[in-house]
């Protein structure tokens, strides 16, 4: 009976026969690390044909130069009786590379002395360290792709991860329509290809048939070119092929970017002489790895493209709700504005959202060259906030045309916001309806008169703007912060007060209006966040450095003041008052018919001084006469009560009760105010009515006045007529035979704009005409 460890009688085989059957290389070295034996698998693994390495150093196995020190450590450790394990990079005789996993043990004499080394080796897909690097690379790619929904950021993160760790060159080409365009061209060591060689970012790319990138897209699978020296292909151009030879491109992998059956493009990696690597060639493992990476990149690119399409739609929607790119020309004001959407919120744990928000701003031309300015912010973000913002802007523009004080405008806007409720099914699954509360909106509305430099404003819970005067940066003081619009929901008691405030801006004074996205949630380098006050100080400091610069420079400095990505959208409006005085003529007249010609003469003199053409001046004087005549005839005349006069009638026969019969109805003298040339109430005016009161012994009303004010702007003139009558004019439809009622119709047809607005002590009728210098 045979015992364990004893071979059966019929199984006595030579040791070499057994060793040559092993699917593992066996190398035996003497004490001087010279090879004295290698089995058949060793010759296959290391790529030598016969016994040519026998008697030569272990380095003759093709151990790469960077692993020579490791081979020395192996011999030193094993000859001392230890066991060694590690990985070598071996260069075969045919120029290919193989990674081998080696396990070395001492070769002992029967006496126990160490006579040499026995090395057992097999092919390793990667060394432990390289294997960890590759799988770590996959993890980092996944993390970085998950951290971005913007296409450019996604592609940049991929290239930064792959170069230089896994490649010396990274190219990503994406289809736009039916053409490929270079989207990424990243190279190790910040090297850049010379112009006219490899395609630059943004340029179209055309791969000829047989090119490895074309093959990858045709086969819809990764293509490996392990050794470029043995591979011949047609390059896109001679210059690109020449540069590849000069760079010493050694190995290339191209992988298609394929998602849901759609070809998005191709990604290519290459190794070259830009960096020294243990193995300057890719192999099958690298090809499979890049194929897996390309699948993830394609999915991320597809998501980014879909997100950017949604974002572009939302931003286009919001852009059309906000004013245009450039402010309109305004007399006495320089204006610059800037709107920046926030970064996507997925990085802050709030889910994926578009970048649109509820920040808005506007510049509204008002009567006689005055300007309405607004800055506001609707709570929240997304499509609903943007839709509410668009409705608010439209509503405020409509309310502003009434030319009422800012506090009245905000009160009216607050009432309108409070009605913005809608029924919505509760998400908890209950079968009842719930009312969505009105949105909360912070807002400040300003009205600026460039000729008087008076700024009127009212605030609804918004941050005060910065005020720059003579290079010093402060804040425009708000006496009352005011409640936010929509704060008082329907059914709630109390009242939100909006106080009217007024200040005068000095020549060259600058206001910086902004929304809270500028100062909210900005991350420090240490991971903490700036407080709102710290952010305000940073903005003040940045603005102070460019306080004497242009309004665009101030807007840019304010936006860049606080470091870090913005978490909310930002709106910035910078306005600066003119340093020079604007032309204005003003005079008060008694409300007498003779003063119509005096007012016309004053206007003619002013228009001539301002350089108006004769034809324009005549038209302007005609309209001045119409408006002033309207005031003299109607607005400044005090309507008198109706007067009754009873005409005695002889007593008739008594009635049944012995009383005389009732007298006939009294004769009425209608002294009610008529409307003449431009009737406000559609009635008629008779000059005999003027003397009726004297005939009845009535006291004459005190003499009234009107004020004519002429303003000259850069490309228009404004005419205003002030009086103490509260009634606002309207255009009447005059009949063919009517002698009056056409004055305001002429103004409406011939003026660029006209209107009337209430004033604290009456009203102002105004019109605008274009100014063309002679």
From TrEMBL:
Gene Ontology molecular function: phosphatase activity
Classification via SUPFAM superfamilies: GAF domain-like, PP2C-like, PYP-like sensor domain (PAS domain)
Hydrolase listed as a keyword: yes
Gene3D superfamilies xrefs: 3.30.450.40, Histidine kinase-like ATPase, C-terminal domain, PAS domain, PPM-type phosphatase domain
Alphabetized InterPro entries for the sequence: Bact_Sigma-Reg, GAF, GAF-like_dom_sf, HATPase_C_sf, PAS, PAS-like_dom_sf, PAS_4, PPM-type-like_dom_sf
Domain PAS: 18-82
Pfam families documented for this protein: GAF, PAS_4, SpoIIE
Protein name: PAS domain S-box protein
PANTHER family xref list: STAGE II SPORULATION PROTEIN E (PTHR43156:SF2), STAGE II SPORULATION PROTEIN E-RELATED (PTHR43156)
UniProt keyword list: Hydrolase
Keyword Lipid metabolism on entry: no
CDD domains: HATPase_RsbW-like, PAS
């Amino acid at each position: 009976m045979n015992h364990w460890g004893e071979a059966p009688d019929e199984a006595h085989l030579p040791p070499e026969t057994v060793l040559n059957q092993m699917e593992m290389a066996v190398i035996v070295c003497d004490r001087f690390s010279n090879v004295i034996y290698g089995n058949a698998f060793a010759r296959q693994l290391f790529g030598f044909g016969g016994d040519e390495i026998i008697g030569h150093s272990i380095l003759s196995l093709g151990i790469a130069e960077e692993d020579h020190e490791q081979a020395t450590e192996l011999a030193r450790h094993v000859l001392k009786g230890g066991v060694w394990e590690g990985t070598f990079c071996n260069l075969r005789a045919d120029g290919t590379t193989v990674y081998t996993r080696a396990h070395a043990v001492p070769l002992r004499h029967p006496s126990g002395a160490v006579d040499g080394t026995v090395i057992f080796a097999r092919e390793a897909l990667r060394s432990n360290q390289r294997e960890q690097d590759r799988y770590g690379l996959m993890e980092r790619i996944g993390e970085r792709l998950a951290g971005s929904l913007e296409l450019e950021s996604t592609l940049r993160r991929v290239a930064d991860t792959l170069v230089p760790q896994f490649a010396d060159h990274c190219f990503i080409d994406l289809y736009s329509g039916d053409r490929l365009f270079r989207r990424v061209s990243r190279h190790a060591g910040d090297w850049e290809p010379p112009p006219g060689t490899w395609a630059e970012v943004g340029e179209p790319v055309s791969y000829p048939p047989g090119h490895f990138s074309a093959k990858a897209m045709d086969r819809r699978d990764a293509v490996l070119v392990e050794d470029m020296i043995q591979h011949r292909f047609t390059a896109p151009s001679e210059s690109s092929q020449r540069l590849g030879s000069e760079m010493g491109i050694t190995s290339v992998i191209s992988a298609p970017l394929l998602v849901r059956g759609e070809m998005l493009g191709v990604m290519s990696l290459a190794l070259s002489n830009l960096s020294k690597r243990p193995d300057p060639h890719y192999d099958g493992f690298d090809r499979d790895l890049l194929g897996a990476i390309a699948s993830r990149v394609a999915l991320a690119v597809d998501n980014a493209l879909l997100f950017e399409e949604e974002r572009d739609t939302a931003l286009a929607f919001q852009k059309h709700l906000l004013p245009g790119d450039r402010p309109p020309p305004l007399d006495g004001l320089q204006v610059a504005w800037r709107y920046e959407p926030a970064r996507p919120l997925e990085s802050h744990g709030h889910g994926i959202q578009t970048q649109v928000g509820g920040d808005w701003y506007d510049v509204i031309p008002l009567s006689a060259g005055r300007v309405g300015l607004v800055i506001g912010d609707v709570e929240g973000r997304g499509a609903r906030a943007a839709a509410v913002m668009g409705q608010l802007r439209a509503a405020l523009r409509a309310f502003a045309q009434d030319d009422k004080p800012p506090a009245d405008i905000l009160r009216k806007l607050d009432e309108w916001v409070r009605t913005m409720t809608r029924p919505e099914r509760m998400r908890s699954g209950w079968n009842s309806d719930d009312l969505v509360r009105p949105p909360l909106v912070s807002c400040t509305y300003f009205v600026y008169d460039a000729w008087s430099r008076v700024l009127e404003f009212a605030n609804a819970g918004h941050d005060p703007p910065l005020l720059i005067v003579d290079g010093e940066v402060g804040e425009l003081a708000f006496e009352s912060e005011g409640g936010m619009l929509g704060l008082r929901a329907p059914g709630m008691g109390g009242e939100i007060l909006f106080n009217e405030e007024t200040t005068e801006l000095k020549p060259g004074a600058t206001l910086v209006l902004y929304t809270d996205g500028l100062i909210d949630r900005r991350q420090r380098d240490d991971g903490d966040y700036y407080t709102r006050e710290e952010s305000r100080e940073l903005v003040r400091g940045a603005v102070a450095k460019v306080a004497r610069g242009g309004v665009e420079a101030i807007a840019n400095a304010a936006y860049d003041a606080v470091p870090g990505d913005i978490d909310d959208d930002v709106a910035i409006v910078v306005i600066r008052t003119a340093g020079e005085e604007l032309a204005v003529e003003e005079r008060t007249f008694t409300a007498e018919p003779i003063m119509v010609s005096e007012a016309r003469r004053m206007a003619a003199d002013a228009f001539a001084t301002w350089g108006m053409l004769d034809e324009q001046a005549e038209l302007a004087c005609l309209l001045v006469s119409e408006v002033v005549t309207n005031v003299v005839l109607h607005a400044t005349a005090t309507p008198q009560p109706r007067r009754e006069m009873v005409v005695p009638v002889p007593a008739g026969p008594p009635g049944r009760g012995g009383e005389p019969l009732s007298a006939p109805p009294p004769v009425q003298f209608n002294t009610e105010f008529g409307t003449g040339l431009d009737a406000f109430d559609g009635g008629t005016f008779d000059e005999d009515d003027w003397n009726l009161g004297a005939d009845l012994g009535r006291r004459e009303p005190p003499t009234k006045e009107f004020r004519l004010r002429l303003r000259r702007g850069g490309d228009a003139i404004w005419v205003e007529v002030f009086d103490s009558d509260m009634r606002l004019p309207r255009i009447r439809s005059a009949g063919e035979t009517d002698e009056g009622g056409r004055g305001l119709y002429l103004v409406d047809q011939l003026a660029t704009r006209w209107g009337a607005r209430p004033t604290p002590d009456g009203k102002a009728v105004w019109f605008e005409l274009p100014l063309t210098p002679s």
